[in-house]
Amino acid sequence: MEPQILELESFLPYRLYRLADTVSREFSRIYKERHGLTRPEWRTLSGLGQRGTMTATELGEQSAMHKTKVSRAVAELERRRWLTRTADEKDRRVEHLTLTRAGLAAYREMVPLAKAFERELLARLSVEEQVAVAKGTAALEVALGNK
């Protein structure tokens, strides 16, 4: 009996990973060019910009980043004076992270660029394809408990 072969090019998890990575890399050119940010730094900036104050653990969960990537991103954004850390009153091991005015300004500058990138990406698809992508993505998120 011949061993089975997995054709990665048709394996859905592989295809989704490759697609997400390609889209992420394409978008990363914008924030790298504009602010010299890495992907983890952008995810940290955007998470805090969206939610206000978060812990590093919450950032990791929200962005699906490993704690070491979150830690490095937080350190770099703090070095730039784009975020501040405040120790939790009840548990000194926990820090609450918040964007500074400079960090918030960078985030607000990036929001319209991110939205334009998304519009341009979706414009490559027909309306029917856009609906199918939205429905399919939502269905997978529900099925996997991500929503």
Q: How many beta-strand elements?
A: 3
State the strand order across the main sheet. Answer: 1-3-2
The whole-number mean of residue pLDDT values reads 94
The residue ranges in which pLDDT falls below 50 over 5 or more consecutive positions are none
SSE order, one letter for each helix or strand: HHEHHEEHH
Bin the strand percentage: 5-15%
Helix amount, in percent? Answer: 55-70%
**Pairing-aware structural class of the strands and helices?**
mainly alpha
Oligomeric assembly: single chain
| Biggest beta-sheet profile | 3 strands, antiparallel
Number of helices: 6
Principal-axes shape call = globular
CA gyration radius, whole angstroms? 18 Å
Give the CA-CA distance, first to last residue: 42 Å
Word description of this protein:
The chain has about 150 residues and is mainly alpha-helical. Helix content is about 65%, strand content about 10%. It is built from six helices and three strands. The protein has helices spanning about 10-35, 40-50, 55-65, 65-80, 100-120, 125-145; strands at about 55, 85, 95-100. The protein has a three-stranded antiparallel sheet. Helix 1 packs across helix 5 (about 100-120), helix 2 (about 40-50) packs across helix 4 and helix 3 crosses helix 4 (about 65-80). The longest helix has 24 residues, at about 10-35. The radius of gyration is 18 Å and the shape is globular. The protein starts with 11 loop residues before the first helix and ends with a helix. About 20% of the residues are buried. The model has no long low-confidence stretch (mean pLDDT about 95).
